[in-house]
Amino acid sequence: MNYQDFESAWYLGLIITSFFVVMLAGFWMAMRRVRHLFVAGDTMSGWLAMGASFFTFIFFLSLCLSLLILLVVRGSG
Length: 77
Prior knowledge:
Blueprint: H1 3-39, H2 43-76
Helix pairs in contact: 1-2
C-alpha cells in the first residue's frame, strides 16, 4: 500500500460522509414538511411525499453503501 492509495481513500471517505450528512439533513427537513401536510388535513399528499422521501433516502443510502463497498473491495486486492 502506498501513499496515493491512502490519499484517494481518504478523500472518497470524506465525500461519502459529507454526502450522507447532507442526505440526512434533507430527509429530516422533508419529514418536517410532511408533518405540516398531515396537520393541515392533506393526508394523501402527506403519504405521497413521505413515500417519495423514503424511497429517495433508501436510494441515496444504497449509493453511499455501494461506494463504501467498492472502496473496501478495491483496497483489499
